[in-house]
Here is the input.
Amino acid sequence: MKTIITSVLTILSVALFAQADKYANTYACTKGKIHFFSASPLEDIEATSNVAVCVLNTQTKKVYSKVAQTSFVFKDGLMQEHFNENYMESDKFPSSVLDMVVVEDIDFTKDGVYDITLKGTLEMHGVKNDREIKCKLTIANGVPSRATGAFDVKLADHDIKIPKAVTMNIAEVVKVDIDFALEKYQKK
Here is the structure.
């Protein structure tokens, strides 16, 4: 009987430790900045979201980021309405998602600014595409503290249609930049 109780207690201890340790290597940002810019002959279009979410697990090197389409703020309310209703169809496709891994083997505890490559998928407008994105990861005081990057998104790759009447107003390729301040994840 004593052996059974000891075994049960050992199993429970291991399970509780594993649960507590589940987030030990996780860093997150809940107010990340994603900005995009579309330069065209007639009109530049740009918007920013300051509520993107990003999670980095340093053990698995997995990176996950998600942003609600309706969180992008434009200088012109009509542009914002057209973006959500006509182009991104935000009611049908409410979010864009990065699901990637860090390619390089880096020491996530060694301070410095590292050039990294994220490899995985970018899902926008309900269409997933394989991508490689170059970023910079800052490690300060032995922990990941900031991730930044810039990349281009070709609208056609995500079935985002541009009506012929406005092809001079919207670029076929949009420049995107990201800025995430990472903190140790605290389960609430």
Notes: The chain has a mean pLDDT of 87. The first strand starts at residue 26 and ends at 38.
